[in-house]
């Protein structure tokens, strides 16, 4: 059985204006105590077999080199050497990924980097609240290659304030020329509570759709496989950790706000860094939420994740019994389409996926 190991590092130099991930600026003084807490939590699962590793954030690359070595020790001592995972991804931000850090990560055994670029346009980066320029990204990307990374993902966001189709496509073209093995392109989501939300920023959905459609055309033409709503990979370079998640596989999450899914139970740790550290120091559980998914909710969750994958779903008789009529309506409305054995998002459904996914989340409504 496949099982992922996710480690959350919630520290950022500055909070971006669109981001509602569990990440905090100005808390670097807690990183050492946080790593001690991680060591305690990891020890609770010592020996649990995990075959894929993903260290995400936040900004994991903000850690100093001695802190990265500490992280290496925690993983090796409780699970296995990083090089033994079938895939081991480390999330890095351009401003904090130096050549010596990239070399250390490579030496530690990481074989994949995921880099947040978001935009190739400095004015757009500034509006996003990013603290790097396009040039700084290029330097860190080259450093990653120089350090030996042969599998790199780069994230872009489409639909940014002031962004035009030309500026977006210009950036995409520059990225294509770097030949990253994997590219994620997300449509901007205005999340409640973020500065963008408070400023009342609204996305031009038609423009964003043109950007995403053109992304598909250009990347497919360049040999990338569009395998998940927002994800493209060169052959053999699909993200294994994320694919396991979309296939409803098990994963263990360590750290504040980290989610786990094991034995049908979904859990999430407290998102407060201070509380997480305090819990681990005093031997209390950091788990803030836990639920056992059963029946229709469990089947709905499986379908919601599975339909994100463009190859579609081979429906089981039970899934047809529970969701057949909803699925049929989405087929009639043109959001889902039937292939020989499977049902998958249609071209239209790709951009209106939330409409489809809503059918699989409780409370279940008849369409
Ligand atoms: C875990 S996040 C952050 C990774 C890394 N700290 C960074 O900023 O580069 C992963 C990706 O989600 C995307 N993302 C985050 N918030 C988003 C939003 N509100 N709308 C669209 N994409 C978003 C960004 O592309 C980001 O790189
Ligand atoms: S987008 Fe990345 S760098 Fe920006 S606040 Fe979120 S996690 Fe931190």
Description:
The chain is built from 14 helices and 16 strands. A hairpin with a 4-residue loop joins strand 15 (336-338) and strand 16 (343-345). The strands form four sheets. A nine-stranded mixed sheet has the order 9-10-8-7-6-5-4-1-11, with helices on both faces. A three-stranded antiparallel sheet has the order 12-13-14, with no helix packed on it. Helix 3 (99-108) packs across helix 5. The chain has 367 residues and is α/β, with parallel strands linked by helices. The protein has two domains: 3-245, Alpha-Beta Barrel (TIM Barrel), CATH 3.20.20; 295-360, Arc Repressor Mutant, subunit A. The relative contact order is 0.12. The site of iron/sulfur cluster has 11 residues, from loops.
């Amino acid at each position: 059985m496949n099982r992922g190991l996710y480690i959350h590092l919630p520290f950022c130099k500055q909070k971006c204006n669109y981001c509602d991930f569990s990440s905090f600026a100005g808390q670097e003084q807690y990183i050492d105590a946080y790593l001690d807490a991680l060591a305690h939590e990891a020890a609770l699962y010592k020996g649990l077999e995990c075959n894929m590793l993903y260290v995400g954030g936040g900004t994991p690359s903000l850690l100093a080199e001695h802190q990265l070595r500490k992280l290496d020790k925690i993983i090796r001592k409780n699970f296995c050497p990083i090089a033994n995972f079938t895939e081991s991804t480390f999330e890095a931000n351009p401003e904090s990924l130096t050549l010596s850090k990239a070399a250390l990560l490579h030496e530690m055994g990481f074989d994949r980097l995921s880099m947040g670029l978001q935009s190739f346009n400095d004015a757009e980066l500034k509006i996003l609240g990013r603290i790097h320029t396009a040039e700084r990204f290029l330097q860190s990307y080259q450093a990653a290659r120089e350090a030996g990374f042969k599998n790199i993902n780069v994230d872009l966001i489409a639909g940014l304030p002031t962004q035009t189709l030309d500026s977006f496509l210009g950036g995409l073209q520059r990225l294509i020329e770097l030949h990253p093995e994997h590219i994620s392109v997300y449509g901007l989501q205005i999340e409640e509570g973020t500065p963008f939300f408070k400023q009342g920023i609204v996305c031009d959905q038609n423009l964003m759709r043109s950007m995403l459609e053109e992304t598909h055309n250009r990347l497919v033409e360049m040999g990338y496989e569009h395998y998940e709503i927002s994800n493209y990979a060169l052959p053999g370079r699909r993200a294994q950790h994320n694919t396991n998640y979309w296939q409803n596989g098990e994963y263990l999450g360590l750290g504040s706000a980290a989610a786990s899914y094991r034995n049908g139970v979904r859990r999430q740790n407290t998102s407060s860094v201070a509380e997480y550290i305090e819990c681990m120091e005093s031997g209390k559980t950091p788990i803030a939420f836990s639920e056992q998914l059963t029946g229709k909710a469990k089947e709905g969750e499986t379908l919601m994740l599975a339909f994100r994958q463009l190859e579609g779903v081979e429906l089981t008789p039970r899934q047809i019994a529970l969701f057949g009529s909803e699925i049929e309506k989405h087929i009639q409305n043109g959001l889902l389409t039937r292939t020989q054995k499977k049902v998958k998002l249609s071209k239209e459904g790709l951009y209106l996926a939330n409409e489809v996914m809503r059918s699989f989340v409780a409370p279940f409504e008849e369409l």
